[in-house]
Amino acid sequence: MVAKIFWGEASRTSELKILNRVEEIAKEHESVDGHIPELIWHHTFTNPTSAIREAFGVPGPTTGSHVLYILVFRKFRPITELHGKELFDVWYQCIHVRHIALWKEGVYHRDVSPSNLMWYWKYGKQIGVLNDYDLSSLADEPGPRGNECTGTVPFMALDLLTEEGQRGQVKHLYRHDLESFMWCFAWISLRYKEGVLLPRKLRPFDVWVTLDAVACGDKKFVFQARMEVPASMHKDDPMWKFLEGCFGVLDELDFARRKQRRKADTVEEEEVESGMNDFIAKFTSTRAWAALSNSSP
Q1: Rounded Cα distance, 189 and 197, in Å
Q2: This protein's superkingdom (predicted)?
Q3: Which of 11-15, 32-36, 102-106, 147-151 has the least mean pLDDT?
């Protein structure tokens, strides 16, 4: 078991409520069942930080109050332990089985990062789990969502790492979370070898965690545009070919959106289910994706 103890924003839909909705969806969709966090016990302390400040006579802001939560889960294993075909299979399960199904049902994760991609054994198979819903939102609930900028900076979509994105002027869409999955795969496959973190001189991206959001976005933009092979990998490695294919698609889509923006002052994207399917299909239809998904373990 593992305990998660945190101060959540009182104005946000609680992670507990989101997890309850996720469990309901799992009961309705067999493909989701078994891929959800297993909550064993929970407790919410009813006094928010605003009430505590008031009781002690401590001056403080009237907004931004937090509530203390304790959630106890079944312990899963980190995806960074995996490599090659196993890494791809668990990663894709998190995308295809969990993430898109929940998004279509109105559960928006909005913080895809390697630490939230987990797995476990079941009936001799490795099962992927998308974990951690404290920054998530529900489509039918009031409160922060939509244009609120959330996520872990090194893995956020480039659109959200612009000055406009950081000001909340870019709506957080399904495609942004899917792009985060691509950055996660690059992070894991280029910084780990057979589940072990590479020495500092051989692993890329260390600087990303030290930069502010906009500066990190600039670094990521250069990586996506150049796709220079890092010292830890050969250019003919199937994993590198896969990354080239995925980031090539992202680059093409980014270019098309920039071109569209130049024709209009504002471009409001409408998100529909068919659009989500079309977006992911642009990746799954590439040769690199097919080669890796069909390769032997």
Answers
A1: 10
A2: Eukaryota
A3: 147-151
Question: Is residue 135 included in any domain, yes or no?
Answer: yes
Q: Is there a domain that residue 3 lies in?
A: no
Which DSSP state fits 233?
Answer: S
Summarize pLDDT for 71-92 with one digit per residue, the tens: 999 999 999 999 999 999 999 9
Question: What global pTM score does this model have?
Answer: 0.90
Look at the block and give the residue holding tokens 């891929």.
35
Element (H, E) at 66: strand 66-73
Distance CA 141, CA 75 (A): 29
What's the token pair of residue 90?
A: 């668990």
Return d(Cα 117, Cα 45) in angstroms, integer. Answer: 28
The answer to whether residue 63 is domain-embedded is: no
CATH code of 123's domain: 1.10.510.10
Cβ atoms within 10 Å of 281's Cβ, excluding its own: 10
The gap from C-alpha 78 to its chain's centroid, in whole angstroms, comes to 14
Contact (CB, 8 A) for 108 and 136: yes
Give me the half-sphere count of Cα atoms (radius 13 Å) on the Cβ side of residue 59: 0
Rounded distance, CA 253 to CA 247, Å?
10
241 is in which domain, residue-wise?
77-293
Give the Å distances, CA to CA, from 108 to 49, 111, 127, 151, 184.
26, 9, 21, 12, 18
Residues 54, 18, 139, 249, Cα dihedral to 10°: 120
DSSP state of 283: H
Does the residue 55 lie in any domain?
no
How many structural domains does the chain have? Answer: 1
**Edge-to-edge strand list for the sheet holding 66-73:** 2-9, 66-73, 39-44
- Look at the block and give the residue holding tokens 């979370």: 177
> Phi, psi at residue 122, to the nearest 5°?
-150, 120
Count helices and strands (H / E) in the chain: 10, 10
